[in-house]
Amino acid sequence: MATSRSQESPGGSGTGAIELRNVTKRFRTPDGGAYTALRDLDLTVAPGEFCAVVGPTGCGKSTTLTLVAGLERATEGQVLVDDSPVRGIGSGIGFVFQTDAVLPWKTVLANVAAGPLFRGEARKDALAAARDWLRRVGLSGFENHHPHQLSGGMRKRVALAQSLINEPRILLMDEPFSALDVQTRSIMSDELLALWEVTRPSVVFVTHDLEEAIALADKVVVLTAGPATVKDVFTVDLPRPRTVQEIRFEPRFVELYQQIWESLRDEVQVAYARTATLAK
Amino acid sequence: MSISTPEGDVRTDPTTGKPAETAESSGRNGFLDVGARRAVRRRRLLVRAIQLGLFVAIFGGWQLSSSMGWIDSFFFGSPSGIVDQLTTWAQSGTDAGSLWEQIGVTLEEAVLGFVIGVLLGIVCGVALGRVRLLAEVFAPYIKAINAVPRIVLGSVFIVVLGFGLSSKVALAIVLVFFVVFFNAFQGTREVDRNLIANARILGASSAQVTWQVVLPSALTWIIASLHSSFGFALIGAIVGEFLGADKGLGLLVRQAQGNFNIDGVFAAMVIMAVLALVAEAAISRLERRLLAWRPPQLSDMETAA
Ligand SMILES: Nc1ncnc2c1ncn2[C@@H]1O[C@H](COP(=O)(O)OP(=O)(O)O)[C@@H](O)[C@H]1O
Ligand SMILES: [Mg+2]
Asked: Which residues form the ABC transmembrane type-1 domain (chain B) (predicted)?
């Protein structure tokens, strides 16, 4: 694995601008064919911008994130972070996965300290920073618990702290709250916004929940049914700071919701029709 | 490569197994405390009683049949004969020297073979699991060697390495290696891709991923293989001794067989069973220690009951 990382500053240099230009991603299928997951996708995320991506299931949202993270390579087109092409896993990137990706055999504290320790920071400093982040996500007192002893929401907080401790300038989130119940989800959304305000990384937040997307983001990108390409981009001009629970009732929110849903609905129907014919 | 691990596939995946919320489960435990604990204790007593009854029935029946002359104790032995044989060996030694020395020799061979075989199995299994090219290159060879009845190698080792310790250790290593190797390989392959991706994004190097993500994750599989592999180490040592040795439990079996001393064969078997059980208990302890992070599993609770 050839990954070069700048070791000096954990967040790396740069401002966190993301640009995907005409990106196509094909996967090799087991029978030797090719499956096009993304086609001619263009996406720009400005430094410090909170961008939500919505689209039907299986359209290629996760794939988009793996390209930005450097976990996968684009087949065609360019993926740029801070104006330079992504080659391998970059530094200064945080990734919150849909399913739990915290290490189940490590304690909560060790999980959060993992990033700095991997990067060669002194143990004492790493643990101190981890304690600090656990306090920020409201998990003080759970340092020595193992992930399985926590609720789903608490595990998500561990995952958030684990990513944010590296002070990423880009935070990629793949349906991070989809496994949580509705109440926990809106609490987590508010906490995420509060944490985001502190360091202001650029965020790409993938979700299938349109309300969540509008409540959180500066910009909502609607992808087409696979192969994904950008269908529409909506600017969310709701004022910040926002409270996720309450913003839903603003007239402007409702208006945006209707507009975006109008755009998304067709794609969802196309995707659904496909799976329905496949099932026959 | 297809790998058979009877225990591996019934285990709940530690990373996706959905445990109950802490507060909830502790509350439930509190509620269950009084009645449930008594029921558990009663059940355990019942199991023990049946186990004891079974033991008495089998060995009592055996003893009775041979004392009454229903079966020929020359061919089938008898529990009292086995006990006599064990006492004789313990008090006045065996033809090959003191009994403790025979046990010590066999144990040394088995433990050495076990440790070396386990280490080799883990290293090779993880290496082939991690590096695709290695796996592709070695797959046919490993399948071929695995298809050969490896016990035959015992004869080869005796010829090449002689009657001493090393030929038995070599056989034990070969037997242990494959069991551990296949589990370590499969365990490495089954590591949650997300865990690896997450660690890499957090900044882990390839080596750090291997040590801190892959190994701990594969450990569930590896440890499951240890249970059967000490048994294999013991088989390797004893078969090796049986084929040619001047010391050890396998030699006792061979000598007893030569003298048509069936009780001697059974007595050696009893000793081997005790050794295997002690090792099994030690491995279970190790397992509990190394896998302490795992959520309590249904199967664990059942065996504890
Ligand atoms: N590694 C892969 N190999 C082959 N196909 C893949 C791979 N990853 C994703 N795909 C396919 O690409 C499509 C998009 O997947 P994904 O990005 O996960 O969708 P989403 O996150 O929008 O639900 C899916 O049809 C999926 O089956
Ligand atoms: Mg997805």
From this structure: 103-283
